[in-house]
UniProtKB/TrEMBL annotation:
Its EC number is 6.1.1.4. The lineage of its organism: Eukaryota, Fungi, Dikarya, Ascomycota, Pezizomycotina. InterPro entries: aa-tRNA-synth_I_CS, aa-tRNA-synth_Ia, Leu-tRNA-ligase, Leu_tRNA-synth_edit, M/V/L/I-tRNA-synth_anticd-bd, Methionyl/Leucyl_tRNA_Synth, Rossmann-like_a/b/a_fold, tRNAsynth_Ia_anticodon-bd. Residues 728-862 form the Methionyl/Valyl/Leucyl/Isoleucyl-tRNA synthetase anticodon-binding domain. The keyword Aminoacyl-tRNA synthetase applies. Gene3D superfamilies: HUPs, Isoleucyl-tRNA Synthetase, Domain 1. It holds the Pfam family tRNA-synt_1. This is leucine--tRNA ligase. One of its GO terms (molecular function) is aminoacyl-tRNA deacylase activity.
Amino acid sequence: MFPYPSGTLHLGHLRVYTISDVLARFKHLQGYDVLHPIGWDAFGLPAENAAIERGQHPEKWTLKNIETMKQQMMAMGGWWDWSREFRTCDPAFYKHTQAIFLRLHERGLAYQAESLVNFDPVDKTVLANEQVDANGCSWRSGAKVEKVMLKQWFLKIRQFQDQLLDDLDVLAENKHWPERVLAMQRNWLGRSEGVKFCFSVERFDEDKSTFGPMDSISVMTTRPDTLFAVMYVALSPNHPFVRAAAKTDAALRDFLQRAQHLPPDSKEGYELEGVYAINPADDIMGYHDFPQRNGRVPVYVAPYVLDYGYGAVMGVPAHDSRDHAFWRANSEEPFIHPLITQHRGYEPGYFLPLEPDYADDEADTEKGFLSTEIPGYHDLSSDDAAEKIIGDLQKQNKVAERVVNWRLRDWLISRQRYWGTPIPIIHCGSCGPVPVPEQDLPVELPDLPDSYFKGKTGNPLAEDVEWKKTTCPSCGSPAERETDTMDTFMDSSWYFFRFLDAKNRDAPVDARLVNPGMPVEIYLGGVEHAILHLLYARFISKFFASTEWWPNGQRTAKGEPFKKLITQGMVHGKTYSDPKTGRFLRPDEVQVTKDTVRIKESGLEPKMTFEKMSKSKYNGVDPGTTIAKYGADVTRAHMLFQAPVSDVLEWDEKSIIGVERWLTRVIRLSTGSFLSTSVWETLDSHLTLDQTLVEILASLKENNIPTTTPPPTTQSAPSLIPSLPQPDRALWSKLQQTIASVTKSYAETYSLNTIVSDLMTLTNLISDTSPASEFTPYLQYHATTHLLRMLAPIAPATAEEGWELLRAKKNRVQTAKHDSIFAAGFPKAELDILPQLNSTQPCVVQVDGKKRFEVEIGRPGELRREEMEAFLLGELGGTEVGREWLERGKGKIWRIAGEGEEGEGKGEGGLPRGWKMIVVRGGRIVNFVSPRKG
């Protein structure tokens, strides 16, 4: 676990920490050497913003929060390895983050460049593309992001883009990673194959300044077959053409300023007056060949065009929905002429243009056949036409080449803030940027007074003259330190390695510990990290696998850090709002009784929904309050029981009482009230944990426990099982089924909610089983020990208390050998005993393949064909519904036969003459086939 020390735990924290703790405890019970560490992702903007607001050093705020959260985490019954605890804000940790940066720089993977970047005007810092949401807002402050030109530090994540994409298939194996996360990463990496075309540019107004040396616009399209249908070219607001044109076009500058605040899917555009792009199709087809062609098309600036790739698109309104919407919003041209049809051989007269406001005015985005209007290409399929267009342009020595494009940009790590890892670079007037020698690490943050931060804006490091002053490591001249700090995702991109070697002073990690310890077996986190933390962690891990830090990484794990990923759902709180105004209501404005909820002021019934917890909605729940009221175990079990791990959890305290009663019943059961003194003495002397049923029965018989069955030998011990009364067999059968189901849920499906349900059912069965034989209390005892061990990961305190109660009943019982329940191991299902325990089975009876009835019959065992048929006829004839069908001379099967004659009996009831009996799956299906079907 690697929480950000925000100050207090909320239920979202509690949920993910509980899930993690449960799985760690389960693996420990199974005998694994489990590493379940804890650390603190302690750098970040919230601490610095709190310092600015309060006039307090961010380190003080952070350390205080860590102490508070640590106490809360201990109260929730968590089990972490605190000996490996560290904080990313500690120089002993960020020294190694700086060393990783230097190694990246040495490999040419870290560089500084002037770039148009995302700037958060509220937090006064640069953001990576991944930290800007779909609406163009900052992931943290929510402010509209601005574009500014700054010199920044980048990491070349794009050099790993092929590995990052290809190895998603490794993570997809056996559904180890959720498909949703894999899809989000594939989309963010954004690999696309297409064709590059070049549109030459014409400018007809000679009085205006030119664009300089650029004389064409490159585009990449995945639909080269639509080239003849291009009606415009659109450029990103950051395209070089646009920036050059803005120098002399005030209206364009105004538009670009406004465009910064437009949503990414905005259809607003700005037409570059007097500028036209020439369709390269002009080189393979003239006006006289194709009078409908759009050779010269307008050029627009369009916010919907992204910066990646060439920052330009060819607009095809007839065959692209987004282009269609943009064209309708920006052009007065009424007609859009489709050139691809879904049917071969369409004549122009049937292929009508699209007109605005008509029902059929929408783009046809499917591939098809080129219109007969295009000589030389008509009736070609889209794929064949694409190949011919590419070939014809190449014959004319025009650009038409297949290219691969990626959406992924290099990782921008510069941040203009104080509370982060300083970038270990020194700027020298003679030598340029020079890495800090590794022996001089860490480059520590200056220790500024509390008063310095009050109301501070901008970058404190840039203003600290004394801290900046240094000498060049290369030439010894006066120089200045880099004043940017690293993106905090840099710290969290490698912290999991550090847990394996948390005290290493000389290197980030030692390969002797990393090789056997990586990759992480199970990793938990919200889906919101899919394209931020998880992508960066994969990148840095693949880099580690190319170094001495994880030399076996590529061979053993493809450099992937996390083998299995579990993404827990959010926790939503009960939210009340006024039905008239929609205003969210505070808890003190609502009166809640057993049956009704009313607004105190108006008496109206409020609207109740479950929504993401937030202060503005007054729906937050303090987990500390719930734990104080019900206890950590009840809170944990209730949280797990309410929803599957990956689903949204709608927190409702109403049903928590049911979980509380269940755990109370477990404790009562653990007192062993169903066990007499003599039974305890027998348990002490002869029975041990994890005995099979045969071993239990044999041990009891051999030690003269009074029973109604004959004393067994070793060979005849299994013969005791069929003689057990049905309640005993049902209890042991249910126990084995529960162990199997719970083990699978813990180990494979992570359906922890069903574990709680299964254990509740087992608890009730153990409690409700009445003594049916001398064996019953012994079976109940063993079932209780298994129940407690299965419960231990979810409710550790309850399980430990129950274990202690069983042990305290008599000091010398076998549980006394295990001081803690977590030393007792996890039970293993005895599945091979189930067929012997279950003396009946379902039997589906068919007549001519059509189901007629289903009934429970005895298990036939291993029988020859004739014996099996006789046994089944006898079993079926012994049931009411069986007699209705098979009774000699009266059964319905005779009427179906239509012969009115009784066949020779093959058992009780017999069969009509000519009928056949087909037995499937050991008698679970019996099909009676009539003469006319047979």
